[in-house]
Amino acid sequence: MSSYTLDPVDALRAPTVVGLIDGLSRCGRKQGRDYGLVAVHSNALEDLEAALQRWLRDGVDLLFSGGTPACAVIRKVLADSGQHKPVVYYGAHPIDGKHEVALEDCLRPDTVCVRIELPLTYTPRNFSILRRLFPELRKVHIPFARNTAFCHREMAERYDRFVAAHGPHGWLQGDEVGFASLRDLSWIIDADYAEHPLRSAAGLREALRAIPARSPAEPVHHVIVAFNDTYHVAGAPRVLLDRSRQSNVPVVWVNNPTMPPAGAVADFCNPFMRVAQHAARYVEEFLAGRWEEGRQTLEWSHDTHFSMNRARLIELGVPGKNIEGAARFFHEILG
Question: Which domains are delineated in the chain?
Answer without folding.
Answer: 11-117+270-300 (3.40.50.2300), 121-268+306-334 (3.40.50.2300)
